[in-house]
Amino acid sequence: MMPLPHDFAGTSFARVPETDLAGVLAIVRKQIALLDLDLSGLTVVVGATTGYQAVTATVAALANADRVVALTRISSRHPSLAAAAEATLAFAKHAKVSKRVEVTNRIDSRKWQDVDLVTNCLEVGPISRSLIELLPSHAVVSLMAEPWELRPGVVDFDACDEAGIKVAAPNLSHPAIDLLPEFARLCCVLLGDAGVVQRAARLAIVCDTPCAPSLEDALREGGARVSVFSHPMLLTDDGWDVIVVAMRPTDKPPMDINCLGRIARNSHQALLVQFSGGVDRSAASYFGLRIWPPKRPTSGQLGLPLDVLGPAPMVRRLTGGLKAAEAAYRGAELGGDSVGFLVTAGSATVVQERA
What we know:
Layout: H1 18-35, E1 43-47, H2 56-62, E2 67-71, H3 81-94, E3 101-104, E4 117-119, H4 129-132, E5 140-142, H5 157-163, E6 166-170, H6 180-193, E7 202-207, H7 212-221, E8 225-229, E9 242-246, H8 257-266, E10 271-276, H9 281-286, E11 290-292, H10 311-329, E12 340-345, E13 350-353
Parallel strand pairs: 1-2, 1-4, 2-3, 4-5, 5-6, 7-8, 7-9, 9-10, 10-11
Antiparallel strand pairs: 6-12, 12-13
């Protein structure tokens, strides 16, 4: 029996066969060349973790970064320091760049002055004002995601603006990254896990992200009858079979008790599929609504990890995030159809600068 893609999601590279490591390394090298990623002369801080994200340190080193610091994060919900270090170094050793990769659980406050690029990831933790004040003014924060993907509070954009520190995001629609169709494919996998037969199903997508067109196209191709709504309050009172929640992360779930009450009255048999964004699961339980996945995704995380689709999508995300940061660091023009864009703090919400 072949293992499901899910079985590889948390795999440590220390336990991946050499042949598979070679395949992932080939994808990494191809993406570095495609994006012309060049981190020469830079010190880069990334996360040390398991799964395909463990390649980040190696990507930076292969792009000729002078020094790569891979930070670990220890908690009950994340890999141990040993497992993260093992996975990160295993791939770096396979790529023969381990001498330029340092795995540690902390950086001395004075050493942050030497950092040129810092990635936004769980292992680094929130890019808070206290961290920003330690960075040199020329440093760049790499979001490694578009702003709509971020949970509130992970980056202090006001502090970055005040310090003159650039914040760069990858353009997920850039041809060399092209992740929106991958998100749609991942959503279809999630629906399959939930036992949903798309053909002829009445399916509502509640989505306020750029993924909406890709999700609609993918689900229509699967034979579903699809309607898209930009907010739960706009959801019509039809008898839906499946309601896909694909919203931005927020402090309060937009799929709240009022919206769920309407769904319970009109589509009580509907299955709620939480692909992204929040759902008030206590209210869903109160109304007797079914919801998938059974375990609540971590805030800001998708219902399934991108790793489920194999290494290529994750490698495209990681290289794209680093390339956007490199371009910002070197003063290249960003925006429009380029590989990334700068992000600043707006008066109330994060806005994208594409000019």
